[in-house]
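User: Structure tokens for this complex, please. No commentary.
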Amino acid sequence: MNERDTALWWAKARSGGPQQVSAGTATPAGMRRLIESDARSVWFLPAVPSAAGPQVLAEYGQPASTWPDTAGTLRVFAACLRCCWPDPGTDPWPGRPAELAHVDWVLELLHPARDRISRQRLLTAGLRRLETARWVLPASGTVRLGPRVAMWGPLELSTVRELWRLIPDPAADERREQP
Amino acid sequence: MTLTGSAALPFEEHTAGSAVLGVYRQVFAVLAREANAMVDDAEVVRVDESILTAFADAGPAGLTVEQIIAACGDTPAVAVRRRFEVLRSYRAVTRVNERPHEMYYQAAFAPYVMLLFLRRLARTGGLGELHRMLSIARLAVDDAATTRDDARAHLREMTNVFRLLANPIMQLAKGGTVESLRSQAQPMLGNSEMLDQARLYHNRAADRWPDLLSECTELRMALGAYRDAVTTAARRLIDQAGKTRALGLLPAERWRSFARDGCVDELAAAADGLLFDAPDPYFTADDLLDAVEEGLHSDAGRTPPPRPRIDDDGPIPDRAGADAEAAALAVRAERLLEGRDQVGVAELLAAAGGWPAARRILSDLTAIQLRTELPYSLTWEDGLRVEATSELTWVTDGWLRRRGEGSVPA
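Assistant:
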């Protein structure tokens, strides 16, 4: 892989987020190779040190670009995280696919004030926004975590684990009660 | 089959008229859906065309109905049969021999010519035909065989054509929207060539038949009206374009409706050649935690609907506010009285020292007096204290009194 190809991959990753390619492709320089669970394809993630990532925006006091309805979108993501990550002791990637109904159930706890229709709208819009940056990978009726979750460092992972424990899972509670 | 001369008998006139009517009916058979109704469906015209084509291919022997249906293989038999009946009722399709149980039919050529003519007219908007008609009329003027009556008829036809052409353009130019003017009038505009041709024709006809002067004048007026209409429409279009010159000569209506009417490809064409390089939205794990905590702790209860400000039970919140003010006023009154039962206003003002402070005391006293529920009263008497040297040059004799429980408010 020459310099030009590497630059092209970086441009693609920058404009389109993490790139999914077939398993035989060589990894461009500076990118992290993340193997899909079925091992047929890999994701190329730009691996930048924390001093060069978007974290520096906060140091310079610059506002990072955000989603519309940031809080709602983040809650959708948290609900996905809770449903797709069965055991917080492990890594979140690759996780497991979760039913959208299950995610909606969790989201109801995070968004108690919303009615069903507006919550459904939030879920659809939030998943679409998150999918653009590959935070989640929705399929028909299900959703799973995107390759970006593998980018979290140990510090962030501990925060996210705390988050996981914070969110109640109505399905798990029910399962525990039933036997 | 035309009859000339005024000596024609009524019966012969009728015969000539019915012959013209027969051709006319044949011509318009292709446009008739049923007897006395026009087609409103292009598909029906297509069926007619295939029927007539089948007749053309068949040769002089003619065709039976079943053969026609077979020839129009891709069309449903019912539709073919229905169209065939319509054509027959207009006599565009007739029996080869007029006898009972004749199976074979033949077609007239006029309907097909009409179809061709209509199709070309639809394509060119009639202007090409008008050009041809002008050329033919021009040639007819030079032709020695043309009679004066023919020339008069031609002149009248041309006059009518130009009038019919000018009227809608003028109407659009005066009253229509610019959008419709642009879409409909453009094919009719820019025909200086045709105007020149018509002018030549007019001049030639006027030279050859000076006694047709009135018809020539009519034609000249019609040409003038057409030119005026075109000029007015062009001016309106240019005026409108002047306002939106920077926007690529599009009218304002187009700018408003494009986003609604454009297809995806048209709209996406605006972004061709652009690479969108917006940075991905970024959030930290702490942001995530904050959002979730806020969501978990947010109150599920609904906010109560706004209550009307005026309550039937009386202004309870107002009373609370009033009490606070009344209490403050009572404190103020006690401070002014300093334990006495009554105190002179002049004394209080003098003690204040300076008008700004005295003014405030005076306003307090007035406020206290206006509160009848407070046990104080301010009374004014007739006396007047005048001190030319003091800051307050005159003071009316007034007293702030503490009201007893039984006393009547002043």
